[in-house]
Write a structure and sequence with these properties.
about 280 residues; 2 domains; about 0% strand
Length: about 280
């Protein structure tokens, strides 16, 4: 119980650090914005603490199947830190922020090709946006999208090397998939495979669809400028993180479905042998 509570408290502390990182690195944060950021950080920390301190499942999936959530959190944390340092370089340059600004510029130029998600984010900006702001948005989108692709590669690699999720022991569907009801009807494998295909397809299409939807909604809600540094950081981070998270969830669902199929085959073979195993 003590180890679970200490682990939950440490996770909550990391969540707070991630949320307040932009306000600590990017200058010009107002007092009202700082208060709102602290409220959001406290709420997120409380949710994380109660989720991981409890023995019963809540809303977080794959809670006891590391390193799934660790990779996702690490990806978002690295994205927020990199974007904060990149924006710091455009406002109050330092040696570190200048380095990240140069890296972001290189990555942004490489990924910014026709019909790419980064190009669609740039086209989402209003026509009267300055060249400097367009380059800044392109660089932030490029480095965030690159981190999301790197996250997917790391997860797939660790899944094969560490035989996730069976290496940590048995996989408890009730704890790790609290929103999935195996008794809802239909074959469990078919439902898992259907959810896997849906999440992978949505994760692939979301970086392309989101800028198009925002651009088409400008006539109703006005143009999205992303002039505020904090708005730019969290918008771009969410734009890159959510699709990669859905992609990872789809891969994980497919992996669980394949494990169930293997378990069924072993059970069928045991029944065919009369329940006996060879010596």
């Amino acid at each position: 119980m003590i180890s679970r509570l200490s682990g939950a408290a440490f996770r909550a502390f990391l969540v707070v650090i991630m949320i307040v990182t932009p306000s600590m690195l990017v200058p010009g944060t107002t007092s009202d914005a700082a208060q709102i950021i602290m409220l959001v950080a406290i709420f997120a920390a409380g949710l994380t603490l109660f989720e991981y301190a409890s023995s019963y499942p809540g809303l977080v999936e794959f809670r006891d199947a590391p390193p799934f959530n660790r990779i996702r959190f690490g990806s978002l944390f690295v994205t927020v830190v990199c974007l904060s340092l990149l924006l710091q370089g455009s406002i109050a340059p330092t040696a570190t922020s200048t380095f990240f600004a140069q890296v972001g510029s290189i990555v942004g130029r490489v990924i910014d090709f026709p019909y790419s998600p980064v190009r669609l984010v740039v086209l989402m900006l209003p026509s009267d946006a300055s060249i400097e702001h367009i380059k800044l948005v392109r660089d932030t989108a490029g480095i965030a999208y690159f981190i999301s692709l790197l996250t997917l590669a790391i997860f797939v690699l660790l899944q094969r090397i560490r035989r996730w999720p069976t290496r940590a022991g048995t996989f408890n569907v009730w704890v790790n998939l609290p929103t999935f009801d195996p008794t809802a009807g239909g074959d469990v494998v078919e439902r898992l495979e259907r959810d896997a295909r849906f999440n992978i397809a949505l994760g692939f299409l979301l970086p392309f669809l989101t800028p198009a939807v925002v651009k088409s909604a400008t006539s109703l809600f006005g143009a999205v400028t992303l002039e505020n540094p904090h708005t730019l950081i969290w918008t771009v981070a969410a734009w890159a993180f959510l699709p990669s998270s859905l992609f990872m969830r789809g891969i994980a669902m497919g992996r669980i479905a394949s494990l169930i199929i293997e378990k069924r085959k072993l059970s069928t073979q045991d029944e065919g042998n009369g329940g006996l195993l060879p010596v």
